[in-house]
Structures are given as structure tokens and as C-alpha cells.
């Protein structure tokens, strides 16, 4: 078995894209990030693959300070290749803050990583990936969807900071959030649900792959919840995205049953359970 590091996302995709595209919606996080990285000059990205007799058996991607994303061919026996990968990561003294992968794969990696490094692990989030190809007809919700405007940068940034706090993602400063949001708004990827002239919910189109559009950053402030705004926001954005993509996909937190119920009402179907496990 061989372990190869990559400095270029373009080169990495040459080796891994075919395998990732076999389950494009399930691998939307890794694929979407790699397509973004291919267009940028960002440094310090960890990209590696384990191969055996010329076949890719495991793929790793990490964009510090975020977690290690890992995938293997669907249905494969992964214990041996995970053991091999951990040996390489330990040998290279790679700082792995956590792992995101299919549930069983993530759990096996975390147990073995703990044995090898002495680090303790903790479940940060049990997730589910959903896929949609048709939006169900739902009852009418007052308001309309529109793109966020440049003069709404501070509002969207404040919602982003609350979203990050709710989901446990690495913290951002207010200034960093506003810079990030300014780019999103300029790219036209942030959408708001507006009722009576007031923004009441948001969502974003992000990390699209060749056939799959990803919906994320779904947030409704506390005072506007339980009014159907998030459902209307996601259903309308998904319908818009399906005009150009075969599917939509999104991640959910299984600890939030209401959001999972909402997405299934819209027409999203579960395709994979995933876990985010952190190391301390």
C-alpha cells in the first residue's frame, strides 16, 4: 500500500475525482471544497490518498483549522487502509483536530487514532446527508425569497456568527465574518426570506459539484422561528437550484429533529449518516 501527499488540488482531483463522483451527493463536502481549492492559491492544505495496486482505497482532505474529511470506496473493507493511513499521519506528526466521515468509518478512525496517539475523542455532531431531486408542494408561507444585498452585510454576518455558535464550527471574529459575508453577497450565494419588508431567515448555495448543489447556512433568528420561514427558504432555494443541477444536498444535525423533519417534508431523502468526532 502506498501513501501519497498532494500540493495541488488539480492534481489531487486527477487521482480521486472518479471515485468521489461515484457517490457525488455523499461526497459533496470533499468534492465541493476541492473544486474551490482548484481555483485558489491557498496553501497549507493537507491532501493525501492511499492506493493499492493503482486503486485509490482512501482519500483525506483537511483545510486547517477545520477537521480531516475522509472517504473510502462505498462498501469496502476499510480497517486495514485506515490503520495504514493513521500510521502515516502519526509519522508525519499531522495535527488532526477531528474527523468527518461516514458514521462507522469515523468511529473506527477515532478509536484507532486514540489508541495510537493517546488523544481522547468526543462526538461533536451526529449528522445526516440528504439528497433531493424534486421539491414537494407545501402550504403557502407569507413572504418571498431574494438575494442578500450589499447593505445587509452586517445583518447576515451577525446571523452567520449565531449559526456558527449553534453548530459548533470554529469561531470567527465579527470582522472576519463580515469579510466572508461580503464575498458571499458579491457572488450572489446568500438568500434571504423577506416578510413585510423584513428579512426573517437565510440560506446559502455553496460548494456545488458537477451535478449537485449544496444548501447550507440555514438560519432563522429565535424570534422568527416556528413560522415556516426556514421551510419556505429552503424549499424555494432548492427549487431554484434544481433548474441548473440534477440534485440538491445538505447536511443536518441529528440532534435537531425539527430541522430533519422539515427537510424531509420538502422532499429531501436521507442517503448517509456521518459523524464529526473531535480529538482533545
UniProtKB/TrEMBL annotation:
Kindly give the InterPro entries that the UniProt entry links to this protein.
Answer: Acyl_CoA_acyltransferase (IPR016181), GNAT_dom (IPR000182)
Task: Recite the UniProt keywords alphabetically.
Answer: Transferase
Q: Does the keyword Transferase apply?
A: yes
Q: Which domain of life is it from?
A: Bacteria
For the keyword Transferase, the answer is: yes
Q: Which Pfam families match?
A: Acetyltransf_1
Q: Name one GO molecular function term.
A: acyltransferase activity, transferring groups other than amino-acyl groups
Q: Which residues form the N-acetyltransferase domain?
A: 143-280
Q: What PROSITE patterns does the database record attribute to this sequence?
A: GNAT
The identity of this protein, by name, is GNAT family N-acetyltransferase
Task: Give the species this sequence originates from.
Answer: Falsibacillus albus
Amino acid at each position: 500500500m502506498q501513501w501519497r501527499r498532494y500540493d495541488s488540488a488539480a492534481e489531487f482531483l486527477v487521482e480521486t475525482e472518479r471515485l468521489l463522483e461515484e457517490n457525488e451527493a455523499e461526497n459533496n463536502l470533499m468534492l465541493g471544497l476541492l473544486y474551490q481549492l482548484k481555483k485558489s492559491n491557498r496553501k497549507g492544505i493537507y491532501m493525501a490518498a492511499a492506493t493499492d495496486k493503482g486503486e485509490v482505497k482512501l482519500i483525506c482532505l483537511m483545510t486547517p483549522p477545520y477537521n480531516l474529511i475522509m472517504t473510502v470506496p462505498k462498501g469496502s473493507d476499510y480497517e486495514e487502509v485506515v490503520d495504514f493511513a493513521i500510521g502515516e499521519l502519526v509519522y508525519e506528526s499531522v495535527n488532526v483536530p477531528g474527523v468527518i466521515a461516514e458514521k462507522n468509518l469515523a468511529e473506527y478512525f477515532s478509536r484507532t487514532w486514540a489508541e495510537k496517539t493517546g488523544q481522547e475523542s468526543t462526538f461533536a455532531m451526529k449528522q445526516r446527508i440528504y439528497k433531493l431531486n424534486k421539491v414537494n408542494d407545501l402550504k403557502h408561507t407569507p413572504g418571498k425569497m431574494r438575494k442578500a444585498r450589499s447593505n445587509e452585510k452586517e445583518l447576515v454576518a451577525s446571523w452567520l456568527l449565531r449559526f456558527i455558535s449553534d453548530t459548533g464550527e470554529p469561531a470567527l471574529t465579527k470582522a472576519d465574518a463580515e469579510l466572508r459575508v461580503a464575498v458571499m453577497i458579491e457572488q450572489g450565494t446568500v438568500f434571504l426570506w423577506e416578510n413585510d419588508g423584513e428579512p426573517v431567515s437565510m440560506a446559502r448555495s455553496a460548494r456545488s459539484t458537477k451535478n449537485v448543489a449544496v444548501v447550507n447556512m440555514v438560519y432563522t433568528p429565535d424570534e422568527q422561528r416556528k413560522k415556516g420561514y426556514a421551510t419556505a427558504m429552503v424549499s424555494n432555494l432548492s427549487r431554484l437550484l434544481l433548474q441548473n443541477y440534477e440534485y440538491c444536498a445538505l447536511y443536518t444535525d441529528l440532534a435537531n429533529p425539527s430541522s430533519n423533519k422539515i427537510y424531509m417534508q420538502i422532499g429531501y431523502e436521507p442517503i448517509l449518516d456521518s459523524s464529526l468526532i473531535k480529538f482533545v
